[in-house]
Design a protein that fits this description.
By secondary structure, the chain is of the alpha+beta class. The protein has 7 helices and 6 strands. The two termini are 23 Å apart.
């Protein structure tokens, strides 16, 4: 059976799948349900039992909406207040981002359009979570020249980037 993919390139079923982190401690199996929060995001990337982790920015933004935000560059993709144009722009952003993420690192460096298309912002509620956030960023594992960068604070995202709200409803319609 062929896996149905979203237009963004990850399995649709991964959005509704129940994820559990299983760890064997002192000969006891401990299971933790992965929820939509920062700890859940950390558990997702550190769960040894989840073998094919989806690292796609749209999946992360929808699945962990409480702590992951997606921003796109309005200098590359000018924004508009008209909802249909925003959907078209989001589709364009995701198409170019997907092409870029599938490209070789050298191709990304050579192609100016791939530079800084988007940011993922991971929200941490207190400074003690910063080390865990760094493990999450490592788990996302983007190449150095990737057009997507991960930041821990909204203040670190340069001017000219707009947060996409209602990502899940946009992706369903794409």
């Amino acid at each position: 059976m062929k896996t149905k993919l979203t237009s963004s390139g990850f399995p649709v079923s991964s959005l509704s799948m129940k994820y559990v982190k299983r760890v064997n401690k002192n000969h006891k199996m401990i299971e933790t349900v992965i929820n939509d929060n920062f700890q859940g995001l950390h558990d997702y990337f550190t769960a040894p039992n989840i073998r094919r982790k989806v690292r796609h920015p749209v999946f992360l933004t929808i699945r962990f909406a409480s702590c992951v935000k997606f921003f796109y560059n309005t200098n590359v993709f000018p924004s508009s207040t008209v909802i249909t144009i925003i959907k078209l722009k989001l589709k364009e952003v995701l198409t170019v981002l997907q092409m870029a993420l599938e490209s070789e690192e050298q191709e990304m460096k050579d192609y100016q359009q791939f530079r800084q298309l988007a940011f993922l912002q991971i929200t941490i509620s207190n400074p003690s979570e910063e080390e865990l956030a760094k493990k999450i960023i490592d788990g996302i594992s983007l190449p150095e020249a990737a057009p997507l960068k991960v930041q821990l604070s909204t203040e670190a995202i340069p001017k000219g980037y707009v947060m996409v709200t209602r990502m899940a409803s946009f992706v369903r319609e794409l």
